[in-house]
Amino acid sequence: MAVHPTAIIHPSAQIAEGAEIGPYAIIEEQVIIGNGTSIGPHAVIGKWTELGEHNRIFHMASVGVAPQDLKYRGEECWTRIGNGNTIREFATVHRGTVTGICETVLGNNNLLMAYSHVAHDCRVGNGNVLANAATLAGHVTVEDNVILGGLVAIHQFVRIGSYAMLGGGTLAGSDVPPYMIASFGDRREAKLRGLNLIGLKRRGFSDEVIRSLKKAYKILFMSDLKLVDALAKLKAEIVGCAEVDTLVSFIEKSERGICRG
Question: pTM for the complete prediction?
Answer without folding.
Answer: 0.97
